[in-house]
Amino acid sequence: MSRVVILSGSPSANSRLNGLTNYVRQALTEAGLQTAFIQVIDLPPEDLVYAKFNSPSIIAANELIEAADAVVIASPVYKASYPGVLKAYIDLLPQKGFENKLIAPVFIAGTMAHMLAVDYALKPMLASMGANHYTKTVYATDNNVTRVETEDGQYQFTVEAEIEARLQGVVNELVNYFNKE
Q1: 80-137 pLDDT per residue, tens
Q2: How far apart are CA 161 and CA 20, in angstroms?
Q3: Cβ-based neighbours of 45, under 8 Å, separated by 6 or more
């Protein structure tokens, strides 16, 4: 069974990015692909800050990436780039940690002005780690995802139809990629 890891680089537990990653994860599961989820904010902060390569949490996350056939890299954009917490985790991956993996970038930002963050910030770093095969990028803005806090303190997300269609396009690319193998 093909394995896809969703790597969420948001430093916020209630980020609108969750609306995008929830959609992708559900659609991949419904398509019969095995998924795993790494949320960098769930990794021990000390392990990230002090680059503890031998941390059990970091080793476990790295093993998920290593076993994956594809990685959805989901991230908000802050100050024209992905957040440092995502970079802190990626720095703990092996040098060729993305080699032979299909990469699906899914980004969200406050404005369309930073759309090139994927091409100019993310992809060069991933290329240095062996990535060379990508799906189309999904780039959304905060206005495309509605976030509502429920009575129990949880958050529900509604993704605009246009963004859902683009996310489904990426899911279809991943499914077609695995069906060709």
Answers
A1: 999 999 999 999 999 999 999 999 999 999 999 998 999 999 999 999 999 999 999 9
A2: 12
A3: none
Pick the CATH number of 3-180 from 3.30.70.1790, 1.20.1250.20, 3.40.50.360, 3.40.50.300: 3.40.50.360
> Would you list the domain boundaries of the chain?
3-180
Instruction: Give the C-alpha separation, 166 to 59, whole Å.
Output: 33
* Per-residue b or e along 163-179, where b marks 16 or more CB atoms closer than 10 Å to that residue's CB: bbebbeebbebbbebbe
Q: Which of 80, 88, 138, 130 is nearest to 110 (CA)?
A: 80
Cβ contact 51:92 at 8 Å: yes
pLDDT tens string 135-170: 999 999 999 999 999 999 899 999 999 999 999 999
Residues whose CB is less than 8 angstroms from the CB of residue 138 and which lie 6 or more positions away in sequence, other chains included: 20, 104, 105, 106, 107, 163, 166, 167, 169, 170
